[in-house]
Amino acid sequence: MGSLKNRLSKFAKSSKGKKLRDTAMRKAKDPKARAKIAKKFGKKG
């Protein structure tokens, strides 16, 4: 069994990891999603 760092690196390079990253980036750019996250964690902006 590899180290956690190696397993995360392998996952990040996989197609599933790339899809997850793309989804997260798209949501990070969405103003509605940003507002929802800010509200949940009590941050302004």
Descriptive overview:
This protein has 45 residues and is mostly helical. The mean pLDDT is 89. It has one domain. It has helices spanning 4-13, 15-29, 31-41.
Element pattern in H and E: HHH
What count of structural domains?
1
* Strand percentage: under 5%
Mean pLDDT: 89
Low-confidence spans: pLDDT under 50, at least 5 residues? none
Annotation field: number of helices: 3
Rg (C-alpha, Å): 15 Å
Q: What share of the residues lie within helices?
A: over 70%
Distance between the termini: 42 Å
By helix and strand content, what is the structural category?
mainly alpha
Q: Describe the biggest sheet?
A: none
Global shape:
elongated
- The number of E-state strands comes to 0
Biased composition (Basic residues): 7-19, 34-45
Region (Disordered): 1-45
Biased composition (Basic and acidic residues): 20-33
